[in-house]
Amino acid sequence: MTPVQPAATAAPERARLSHHREQVMGTVVTIDVFGEADEVTRKEVHLRIARARAVLQSADAVFSTWKEHSPINQLRRGEITVAQAPPEVAAVMEGCATARSLSDGWFDPWAMPGGFDPTGYVKGWAAQRALGALSMPGLTGGIVNAAGDVVASGRPGPGRPFRVAIVDPSNRKRFACVVELDGGIATSGTYERGAHLIDPRTGQPASRAASASVTGPDLGLADALATALAVAGPAGLAFIEPIEGYEGFVIGYDGSWQYTADFPFDTARSGRGITSETASVTRTSKSLS
Amino acid sequence: MRRARVVVIATIAGLAGVLSFHTKPATLSFGQPVGGPAVPGGSPTSAPTSTTTGPASSGPPATTSPSTSPAATRTATGAAINYSYGVVSVAATVSGTKLTNVTIASIDDGGNFRSESIDQQSVPVLEQEALQAQSGNIQGVSGASYTSAGFEQSLQSALTQLGFK
Questions:
Q1: Number of folded domains in chain A?
Q2: B145 CB near a chain A CB, below 8 Å?
Q3: Is A155 on the interface with B (CB under 8 A)?
Q4: Partners of A215 in the beta sheet?
Q5: N or C: which end of chain B has fewer CB within 10 A?
Q6: Which residues, numbered 37 to 76 in chain B, qualify as contacts with chain A under a Cβ-Cβ cut-off of 8 Å?
Q7: Is residue B18 a part of any domain in this protein?
Q8: Sheet holding B51-52, edge to edge
Q9: How confident is the model over A114-153, as pLDDT tens digits?
């Protein structure tokens, strides 16, 4: 394994010290670290990445619903109690309860078929912790991308914020838009109408947005809220709006855009997917609910 | 009337991690990574928690926990599925009741340059990096279900062949 690879040669990424791909949680998580090469050693960077990887693998071991003997499955089968489970389980349950409450029940891991399933929270939660494990003096920034749920801190270079594109749900090879990121962004949705999310209120498949993104300081919560917003649809922006520090953005199946007042669109709006024909921008009323 | 903004206490821990980027990280306990090669399926995706991405996988991840226990190590190759960048086929290996490995058995991306750098399970990231390459000044891409639907469907097909449900 070669966790630390040479920085890309492209000029805009000059300050990227390493780019690592970790296969975990049923997907690939990328970890990028930025800084000045003369201020930190390769070994130090390697160590931090190793820690971040361990955070991710540990989260997978505890919360994988695909691993028969994972603590989360033991809990679901009633073989252990929360108190007997690793301490992360109680922490995640608390985070899930917060997300359920803030989303007015549109995110509800307790209502999933098969019992408590925190998957919609855990990927973001784990990426957030992995980012925390990267922090060290001399780095200007770090970004962890857990298969489309992204969390960043610091800056990729002097005077530049991290910029993250949101996929155009009608054409996954294009961007719908770009956001400036300091914290997390999670995107949920079903790009095709045939696929589905589960509506916790009915236990039945339901999706009312082609794409639903939530930004905020904690990626675990953003992840859960994005799932809730995808199920609730544009009306769900009403529960996102009052949450301090969190913003929402919904792309409808008709290509329409709706978002909360302070969604952090990149000022340059340099996404490639933006076309006036497909994007009718609807600003949600600040007086919602 | 607008509600007062809710302050989210639960995120303070997360925030602390972000804000103290230049300080020493909190001590974390690092468990030994489990299970050798990473096995897809931990938590299929963000959306996917409560999600299934295609007709082939019609239940939550939990339902795929093995309940029968054929003993030997067996491998099956899933159906070739069209996905947004081409056609992908996934091979799954099951040892007893455990899913022990998942690899891309074949991938045809229509001669796209990306085929040079295909490695196991990297399709989701390749999708992302292909997008990222469109702009020299993007550090990430956010999208639903980056464990691509094609990947999941083919995997489900392989698991079904193995009686791994």
A1: 1
A2: yes
A3: no
A4: A185, A247
A5: N
A6: 37-55, 59-66
A7: no
A8: A204-205, A196-199, B51-52
A9: 789 898 899 999 999 999 999 888 899 999 999 889 999 9
Residue B53's domain comprises 38-161
Of residues A235, A287, A214, A241, the one with CA closest to residue B6: A241
The structural domain count of chain B equals 1
Phi/psi at B26 (5° precision): -60, 150
Whether A80 maps to a domain, the answer reads: yes
Residue A183 vs residue B65, higher pLDDT: A183
Domain that holds residue A118: 13-283
CB distance B11–A241 less than 8 Å?
no
Angle B60-A171-A224 from CA coordinates, rounded to 5° = 35
Q: Within a domain: residue B2?
A: no
| Minimal C-alpha gap between B40 and chain A (Å) | 3
Question: Is B47 close to A112, i.e. CB distance below 8 A?
Answer: no
Indicate whether A154 belongs to any domain: yes
Residue A170: pLDDT band (50, 70, 90) is confident
A261 has a pLDDT exceeding 70: yes
A137 to chain B nearest CA, in Å? Answer: 5
CATH of residue A258's domain is 3.10.520.10
pTM above 0.80, yes or no: no
Instruction: List all residues of chain A from 239 to 278 with a beta carbon under 8 Å from chain B.
Output: 241-246, 270, 272
pLDDT per residue as tens digits for the range A67-119: 789 999 999 999 999 999 999 999 999 999 999 999 999 999 999 877 898 98
**B34 Cβ partners below 8 Å, 6+ apart?**
A57, A60, A61, A67
pLDDT at position A90, please? 97
Would A96 be classed as within a structural domain? yes
CA nearest neighbour of B12 among A216, A58, A53: A216
**CA–CA gap between residue B96 and residue B93 (Å, rounded):** 10
Q: Is A80 on the interface with B (CB under 8 A)?
A: no
A40 touches chain B (CB under 8 A): no
B2 versus A212: the higher-pLDDT residue is: A212
Residues of B in contact with A31 (CB under 8 A): none
φ, ψ dihedrals at A110, nearest 5°: -80, -10
pLDDT at A153: 96
Does A67 contact B34 at a Cβ distance shorter than 8 Å?
Answer: yes
A220-238 pLDDT tens trace: 999 999 999 999 999 999 9
- Nearest-by-CA chain A residue for B146: A147
